């Protein structure tokens, strides 16, 4: 991979990605091929309840590490959902100077929806080729985990209770949480909290909490890990041109990845943070 050529390509892609005009917010059609909003009505313990949910495609995600360059291979793209989350509740006309398209840029793992009748690892191979430009055999992929998820991210200052290993309290709450599993990567602590849907990244008393909930939507994602080399980078990447995808390729070394996930607020989904944390915990020798 020629770094100069990739940087030039990224500059061109970034201009195309942010060349967005005439944003309008409309009601979602009931025949959308991507999401299906429904209202579920049921009786629980004698009480009638309703719950509005959204069903969408399952997906694959890939933690990609280039062993030649010793860098993680990531992608950045415009996500309308991320942009929409930055808008006020009621907005008729969107002022692009006040709400620039850059608000919708997210840094992610290479990923894609499961919309083909193929083994998941083959879909992962396709996404690696289309988004990142690497050709890797199925045997190079290692399945990490399959989970159902929807995410929210919040940050807190935390107080570690001295003398109580594995216990901590949030500064905004008096509740004491019990850590079921914790690993330390240098001065970064990663934990899963028992009896909750919380995944934690703790760095310098700043706690990023990923709420891996399934409240209004829960898609299934299978996460893979693959190692690639410069010799395997034989396609341009940048997304499937036939589908109008515009994806910027991003490289991060291990230190840059650590700094990013502990920066307090990141423009990335929880699958990204989980995948990078898994890499730091399990492939730290790189």
Automatic annotation (TrEMBL):
Gene3D superfamilies: Nucleoside Triphosphate Pyrophosphohydrolase. This is Nudix hydrolase domain-containing protein. The keyword rRNA-binding does not apply. Residues 55-205 form the Nudix hydrolase domain. Keywords: Hydrolase. It comes from the Eukaryota. InterPro entries: NUDIX_hydrolase-like_dom_sf, NUDIX_hydrolase_dom. GO terms for biological process: nucleoside phosphate metabolic process; ribose phosphate metabolic process. PROSITE patterns: NUDIX (PS51462). GO terms for molecular function: UDP-sugar diphosphatase activity.
């Amino acid at each position: 991979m020629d770094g100069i050529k990739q940087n030039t390509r990224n500059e061109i892609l970034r201009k195309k990605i942010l060349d967005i005009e005439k944003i309008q917010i409309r009601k979602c059609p009931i025949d959308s091929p991507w999401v299906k909003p429904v209202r579920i009505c049921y009786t629980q313990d004698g009480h009638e309840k309703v719950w509005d949910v959204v069903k969408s495609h399952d997906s694959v995600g890939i933690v990609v590490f280039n062993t030649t360059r010793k860098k993680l291979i990531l992608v950045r793209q415009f996500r309308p959902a991320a942009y929409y989350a930055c808008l006020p509740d009621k907005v008729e006309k969107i002022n692009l100077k006040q709400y620039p398209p850059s608000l919708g840029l997210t840094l992610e793992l290479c990923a894609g929806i499961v919309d083909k009748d193929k083994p998941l690892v083959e879909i992962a191979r396709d996404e690696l080729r289309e988004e990142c430009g690497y050709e890797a055999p199925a045997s190079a992929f290692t399945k990490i985990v399959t989970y159902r998820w929807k995410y929210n991210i919040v940050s807190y200052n935390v107080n570690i209770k001295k003398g109580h290993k594995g216990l901590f309290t949030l500064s905004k709450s008096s509740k004491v949480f019990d850590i079921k599993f914790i690993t330390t990567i240098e001065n970064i602590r990663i934990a899963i909290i028992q009896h909750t849907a919380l995944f934690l990244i703790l760095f310098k008393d700043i706690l990023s909490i990923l709420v891996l909930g399934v409240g209004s939507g829960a898609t299934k994602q299978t996460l893979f890990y693959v190692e690639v080399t410069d010799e395997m980078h034989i396609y341009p990447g940048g997304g499937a041109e036939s589908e109008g995808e515009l994806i910027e390729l991003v490289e991060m070394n291990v230190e840059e990845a650590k700094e990013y996930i502990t920066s307090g607020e990141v423009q990335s989904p929880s699958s990204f943070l989980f995948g990078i944390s898994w890499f730091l915990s399990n492939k730290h020798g790189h």
